[in-house]
Design brief:
heterodimer, A: alpha/beta, Fumarate Reductase Iron-sulfur Protein, Chain B, domain 2, FAD/NAD(P)-binding domain, 3 domains, four-stranded parallel beta sheet, B: alpha/beta, Elongation Factor Tu (Ef-tu), domain 3, Rossmann fold, seven-stranded mixed beta sheet, five-stranded antiparallel beta sheet, about 30% helix, about 30% strand, globular, binds flavin-adenine dinucleotide, binds FE2/S2 (inorganic) cluster
Chain lengths: ~475, ~280
């Protein structure tokens, strides 16, 4: 048994970090990383690897780190995961690799996420990125075979990287003005610095990937246009990004932002630097975020950091233990002084005479016995209405399928909820040559799941092209 | 980066710009819009596509300088590059043979009705255009509207050119003259679209308006552009911007357009101080 305890990652103190947008955890230094790596038991049967959606050889990279072979460690990771600096920071390791670590039963699993981040950051600081020599795959006409990718989130970026390494010309079309999907518009700077996303995108360019921003597939170019332009296959990775609202009265008052709108203003358009940046966001002293998932925690923690904001509430209709966000994020939010109004459900947004939000009216809820699925249902307590004075309401209630592209493609099969029906092992859709993956086929999930789908799709696209196109 | 190929001053604060953007032009249709970011720290600004040239890949926009983003855009010149332009966005105007159509444009709504009038006429409709301005100096696109309409009526509030009065007065007069009107299309300030819709509701004429809700991404991702149409909430960037004028909650739209009034002023002042310092 390992004697030492899991080494905590040093982080900015709560009182300090709520005044800035800098990254919260500092990450391990060299000796911390070596110490934590040395706790690994190097199991004969490393179950952690099964817990990783892309099966990184975790045992090996940790062994390399404990032996001081950092270059070897990052190479091992990158064989399975092209975005380790991102995943080390945002993956829910506690339900994946670390949940399978044999040390979990001692309560002290290896901090695999922090080690992955360490290896990736070490590489960025110490190694020069070089473009590998890749032999282009050509078609009957002697030209390099081209694949079009709609969307530059983790799914699209992964497909592009994998295909480029195989020798295909991968061209990503992104609707927004920056590449990265949720990594740039959703996840805040203090959890995932944008410079890291930019670095990963630059690496893809070095591999020969082309990125055309401001292009909406289905609008600027239809899928038919892309095939007509000589693309031999198309991958759709446009994400799930359409926000859900509460459908309660007063939701269109000024000061109500969907979490997507709020985070996009802040992260993509840098409203926290207004007026240096032109995009504004208007927050008063008190902000209420509705919902308790990761997105809600992000919205609450961003609000807390905005100047002038004094009080931030999370309003959630169930109790603490049902909160769907990562424990770590919930703890971070609590440390930062976010008020948790649990077993509370909004029924109406109220406004002042000018139409700006003034309060949110809620009811108290009670949990009933768990149903067959084990989940407790909730019921409003009659007569328990009360109001919380707030200046802003931010519903963070999940997303629906973005239909901008999907409804513009004839013959593309969608499921009941509007997501693309794609084979989870290959990304194949109802149309040959069109593949899909990530949130637009699974519904909102995780970065690593989108990357996993991208990897499988890239392999399937390669097989499809070898069979149908390449010379 | 996208090159500005043409810049023309139409009135004191209204400018026409051509921007090289083949990706916007390829499938552009009447009623679509673009989102422009003037410079790297800029806002995403929605502007209607006024015209486009398939051959050269140039898209044309006409905008009025009202705040920081349009002022910054207006300072750019031929040969400069805008940071970004995305499009074509929104559903295009549904073109079919309606019969007698009246298109009504107010101020910088006129550039929006130009391609719609053209497409309607190409589809065999008889098109009467009514354009409205406060005064003759602010009048734009008269010649262009004539080229795509069977008849053009210019209305100015002060009577300094064309007929005196509001576009609704001109529309009412046209109706009173007796000709059958099968469809009215109105684009302009919210008050104007509201007034036209109220009038045509009384007269029983189907009316389509193009809503200018505040927008952010323009791809249906943020919901900031939500508007109430009948009893439904719609996102104007993807479900619109065209809606049945008789169902639009104009009061809500007016209110939501003022969400950032205070910030808009701070932003413009900040920009002016910056310019003065240069
Ligand atoms: C605030 C927030 C926090 C999150 N935190 C975490 C976390 O900590 N850990 C984690 O694992 N997951 C997290 N997630 C979930 C994770 O980010 C997503 O599951 C993942 O990004 C999905 O990847 P994707 O490639 O499928 O789509 P996205 O990342 O959504 O990217 C899709 C891209 O496609 C573009 N697009 C859309 N339509 C078109 C079109 N027609 N043409 C061209 N481009 C188009 C979009 O602009 C976007 O850039 C979070 C999500 C949010 C919103
Ligand atoms: C689909 C669509 C198409 C549009 N087409 C055109 C066009 O072809 N030409 C054109 O000049 N403008 C058009 N607009 C309006 C244009 O987007 C705004 O004028 C612009 O965003 C103002 O930005 P700003 O920073 O310069 O001014 P701000 O500082 O943001 O605002 C200054 C003033 O303009 C008002 N304003 C801001 N946004 C809007 C808006 N969306 N609609 C009406 N008033 C607004 C504000 O209330 C304020 O009084 C369109 C808007 C939409 C949504
Ligand atoms: S502008 Fe964001 S959804 Fe319409």
């Amino acid at each position: 048994m390992a004697k030492k305890e899991r080494l905590k990652v040093r982080q900015q103190a709560a009182a300090e970090r709520t005044k800035n947008f800098d990254e919260v955890p500092f990450g391990y230094d060299d000796s911390e990383a070596a110490d934590e790596a040395s706790r690994c038991l190097q199991c004969k049967n490393p179950t952690c690897i099964e817990g990783c959606p892309v099966n990184i050889n975790i045992k090996e990279f940790i062994r390399q780190l404990s032996a001081g072979d950092k270059a070897g460690a990052i190479k091992t990771i990158k064989q399975s995961n092209s975005l380790p600096a991102v995943c080390g920071r945002v993956c829910p390791q506690e339900t994946q690799c670390e949940a399978k670590c044999v040390l979990l039963k001692t309560g002290q699993p290896i901090n695999i996420g922090a080690l992955e981040r360490y290896a990736a950051d070490w590489e960025a600081a110490n190694l020069k990125t070089e473009a590998p020599k890749i032999k282009p795959v050509t078609g009957a006409d002697g030209k390099q075979i081209k694949v079009a990718i709609a969307g530059s989130g983790p799914a699209g970026l992964t497909v592009a990287g994998e295909l480029a390494k195989l020798g295909y010309k991968a061209v990503i079309f992104e609707a927004l003005h920056l590449a990265g999907g949720v990594l740039v518009y959703g996840i805040p700077e203090f959890r995932l610095p944008k410079a890291i996303v930019k670095r990963e995108v630059e690496y893809l360019k070095l591999l020969g990937v082309e990125i055309e921003t401001n292009v909406l597939v289905g609008k600027s170019y239809t899928i038919d246009d892309l095939f007509a332009d000589g693309f031999s296959a198309v991958f759709i990775g446009v994400g799930a990004g359409t926000p859900s609202f509460m459908n309660i009265p007063g939701e269109n008052y000024k000061g109500v932002y969907s979490s997507n709108e709020f985070l996009t203003r802040m992260n993509l358009l840098k409203a926290y630097k207004f007026p240096e940046y032109d995009t504004p966001v208007k927050l008063g002293k008190k902000v209420a975020v509705v919902g308790a998932g990761n997105v809600a925690m992000d919205a609450a923690r961003v609000s807390k950091r905005f100047k002038g904001v004094e009080e931030v509430h999370i309003i959630y209709r169930r109790s603490d233990k049902e909160m769907p966000a990562r424990r770590e994020e919930i703890e971070h939010a609590k440390e930062e002084g976010i008020i948790m109004d649990l077993l509370t459900n909004p029924v109406q947004v109220l406004a002042d005479e000018n139409g700006f939000v003034s309060a949110i009216k809620c009811v108290k809820m009670t949990l009933c016995e768990p149903d067959a699925s084990g989940r407790c249902s909730v019921k409003a307590i009659a007569g328990s209405e009360f109001t919380i004075e707030v200046d802003n309401v931010i519903p963070a209630l999940g997303t629906k399928a973005n239909e901008l592209l999907t409804t513009n493609v004839k013959g593309l099969k969608l499921n009941r909820r509007g997501y693309i029906e794609a084979d989870p092992e290959t990304g194949e859709t109802s149309i040959p040559g069109i593949f899909a993956g990530g949130d637009i086929s699974t519904g909102a999930a995780t970065v690593i799941a989108a990357m996993g789908a991208g990897k499988k799709s890239a392999a399937a696209i390669d097989r499809y092209l070898k069979k149908n196109i390449s010379a | 980066m996208y090159k500005i190929t043409l810049k023309r001053q139409l009135t004191k604060d209204i400018k026409l710009m051509g921007i090289l953007a083949p990706h916007v032009v390829r499938n552009a249709k009447a009623g679509n819009f673009v989102i422009v970011i003037p410079g790297e720290t800029g806002e995403r600004v929605p502007l209607t596509i006024y015209d486009w040239d398939k051959e050269s890949g140039v898209v044309y926009i006409i905008f009025q300088e009202v705040g920081v983003s349009t002022v910054k855009l207006g300072m750019m010149n031929e040969g400069d590059f805008v940071y970004s332009i995305a499009g074509p966005l929104g559903r295009h105007f549904h073109i079919e043979k309606y019969g007698n159509v009246v298109v009504v444009g107010g101020g910088v709504g006129v550039p929006a009705i130009f391609p719609i009038a053209r497409a309607l006429r190409d589809a065999g409709n008889s098109v009467t255009s009514i354009t409205g301005f406060r005064t003759s100096e602010l009048s734009i696109l008269e010649k262009e509207m004539k080229s795509v309409s069977d008849a053009v009526i210019v209305a100015t509030n002060d009577g300094s050119s064309g007929t005196k009065g509001l576009v609704t007065d001109a529309l009412k007069a046209l109706y009173d003259k007796g000709g059958k009107i099968d469809l009215v299309v109105a684009v302009g300030p919210v008050v104007m679209m509201k007034a036209v819709s109220e009038l045509t509701k009384q007269l029983g004429i189907k009316t389509i308006v193009s809503l200018n809700a505040l927008m952010l991404d323009g791809t249906g991702m943020c919901g900031g552009c939500r508007v109430t149409i009948g009893d439904k909430v719609k996102f104007s960037c993807v479900d619109g911007p065209d809606f049945d004028g008789h169902l639009v909650d104009f009061n809500e739209l007016t209110s939501r357009l003022s969400a950032f009034k205070a910030e808009e002023k701070i932003s413009l002042d900040h920009c002016k101080i910056h310019l003065a310092g240069r």
